[in-house]
Amino acid sequence: VNEALIEKGDYDREEIVGAHVSRVMPEEDILRGAEIIVELLEDPEKTSETVELEIVHDDGTRREYEDHISVITDDDGHLVGTVGIVRDIQARNERERELEQYETIVETVPEGVFVLDENANIVTANEEGASILGVPLERALSTGIPALVAEGRVDPEVVPVYKEVVRDLLSSETGTEQGRFRYRVYPDEGEERTIE
Question: In the list 53, 86, 98, 164, which could disulfide-bond 29, CB 3.0-4.6 Å?
C-alpha cells in the first residue's frame, strides 16, 4: 500500500498493511476482483485488467476508484500475488453523471435549447432548438453559430455579442452569473424569428 492511498483513505499504515482486502473493499467488489484474477490466470496473453470499484476509507465513507489489476505468477504460471494500481475516479464519475442528467434535461425540455462553447460552436442541442435554426438536429450538432451566420441562418451580430457575454460570465470582476441577449434567426427563406 503506497502513501497516497494511506493518506487519501486516512488509514493507519500498521493496521492496513497485511490486512485482508475486506478491510478496504466491499464484498461484491472483492468477488469481482477475484473473477478478474481468474480470467487473467486463464488467459496468458492478457496481462492486466482495469475495473471500477469502491474503496472504503477509514472513516467508513466509500469512494469510487479504478483498479488496474495485474497478476504475479511463478515460472510455472501459479499465482504468487496481485498488484493493483488504484486511481480515485469519484469526481470524474460524478461529473459524468451530472453531464448525463444535463443532457437528458436538454433533450426533453419543450423549449429550444443550444449549448455553445466559448467559440459559439454548438456542443449540444435539442430537436426544438435545431428546428428554430431550420436545420436537422444532426446538422446542428456538427456545426457552429459562425457557420450558420455564413449561411445566412443567424444574425451576424450574434457571435460578437455572445463572446462578450461569455467574457462577462468568465470574468471575476463582473460577478455575472447568467447572460441573456436577443438575436434574429432565418430558418427558411423569407422567415425571421427573434430568439433569446
Answer: 53
Label residue 133 exposed, middle or buried (CB < 10 Å: 0-12, 13-18, 19+). Answer: buried
pTM of whole model > 0.90? no
Task: Tell how strand 62-73 and strand 48-56 pair up.
Answer: antiparallel
Cell of 98: 451530472
Residues in the chain, pLDDT under 70? none
The answer to whether 26 and 72 have CB atoms below 8 angstroms apart is: no
**The three three-digit cell numbers of residue 142, written as one number:** 456538427
Question: 29: helix, coil or strand?
Answer: helix
Q: With beta carbons less than 8 A apart as the criterion, state whether 24 and 10 touch.
A: no
Are 43 and 89 contacting, i.e. CB atoms less than 8 angstroms apart? no
Cα–Cα distance for residue pair 37/191, rounded to 1 Å: 64
